[in-house]
Amino acid sequence: MGALPAYPPAVQQSVAEFMSAAPSSVRALSGSSAWASTYSTTLRRVIHEHAARAPRTLQSYLGPSELGAVCDRQVAGKMAALPATNHVSDPWPSIVGTACHAWAAEAFEADNARSGVLRWVAEQKVTPHPNHPGTADLYDAVEHAVVDHKFLGESSLAKVRSAAGPPRHYVVQLLLYGLGYRNLGLPVRRVALAAYPRTAASLDGLYVWERAFADEHGNVLPDVVELLTEVFAQTEQRRAWADEIVAGRQGLLDVSADPSADECYFCPFYRPQAARDGGTGCPGSVSA
After folding, report:
1. What is the domain extent for residue 37?
2. Are 69 and 176 in contact (CB under 8 A)?
3. What are the C-alpha distances in Å from 30 to residues 17, 27, 173?
4. Is the dihedral of CA 94, 177, 167, 230 positive or negative?
5. Can you give the CATH number for the domain in which 214 is found?
6. Hey, is 160 helix, strand or coil?
7. Residue 183, H or E segment
8. Which helix (H) or strand (E) holds 139?
9. Is residue 206 part of a domain?
10. What tens-digit pLDDT sequence spans the chain (288 residues)?
11. From what superkingdom does this record's organism come (predicted)?
């Protein structure tokens, strides 16, 4: 059996011994044999390490996709560049999403080439806030629409389809992208979330949610202005908290939190054990 790279010798030995002694029913969880199970660990390591070095992972500023999060603690912690304590979440959904976004960009750019009309603008950098630029997925020059692709599992797709619509951070992200395109001088009449069924066998489940951004005269709608004004004020307050954390005048847990069973799992500071041992990280929705 080959060695397990990037793990201490004692861990390699214990895992190797376990896999060698484990019954076939256990080994089959990650491979058809002891070697295959060990090899799956090697493959997983390479993918995880590459994901940890991806530009988005190493990004030192928050983009539009993060500013709309309802939890002050999560955003302030990111602004303060605190080290992650979450050892629960897996990068695989993000990896799949990145690959799907790249494929979608190629598809819409190819449609421009086939039609001879520059209808679609894919992967355009926009700056809705001077300190928080981002890359918008798609702009439709015919509909004057800003489109964000979301490749979602069944439960997340169901929430977008529900009467409540997409979560707040999705809506804020779309509106910020809309503002970013306005700042580029392009008209924006509406924003749209294209929710693709990531785990389905076909695109039949594709669902589009849209929201008006401006009226027929190009004036940004009052409700959009109100929400973006709220987000900008929130962002300044969160930056102030982050500065206090960096200066050592307060800790992460001094910032108010809005724990959610859905959102905490993906937060970089989620550490449910903190509810019991009082250690680093945020317990999130877990009670002591």
Report:
1. 9-52
2. no
3. 16, 6, 37
4. positive
5. 3.90.320.10
6. helix
7. helix 168-183
8. strand 134-140
9. yes
10. 344 444 445 444 444 444 454 444 444 578 888 899 999 999 999 998 898 887 765 555 799 999 999 999 999 999 999 998 987 678 888 899 999 999 999 999 999 999 999 999 999 999 999 999 999 999 999 999 999 999 999 999 999 999 999 999 999 999 999 999 999 999 999 999 999 999 999 999 999 999 999 999 999 999 999 999 999 999 999 999 999 999 999 999 999 999 887 788 889 999 988 888 888 899 987 654
11. Bacteria
Hey, what amino acid is at 195?
A
Angle at which helices 222-246 and 72-79 cross, to 10°? 60
Q: Is the same domain home to 35 and 97? A: no
On whether both 131 and 33 belong to a single domain, the answer is no
Residue with tokens 């015919």: 142
Specify the pTM: 0.83
Q: How many domains does the chain have?
A: 2
Q: Can you tell me the distance from the alpha carbon of 29 to that of 197, in angstroms, rounded to the nearest whole number? A: 26
Return the axis-axis angle of helices 168-183 and 222-246, rounded to nearest 10°.
Answer: 100
The answer to whether 283 and 272 are in contact (CB under 8 A) is yes
Residues 168, 174, 179, CA angle at the centre, nearest 5°? 125
One-letter amino acid for residue 281 of the chain: G
CA distance 254 to 238: 12
Q: Which residues are CB-neighbours of 10 under 8 A, at least 6 positions away?
A: none
The residue whose two tokens read 């977008």 is 160
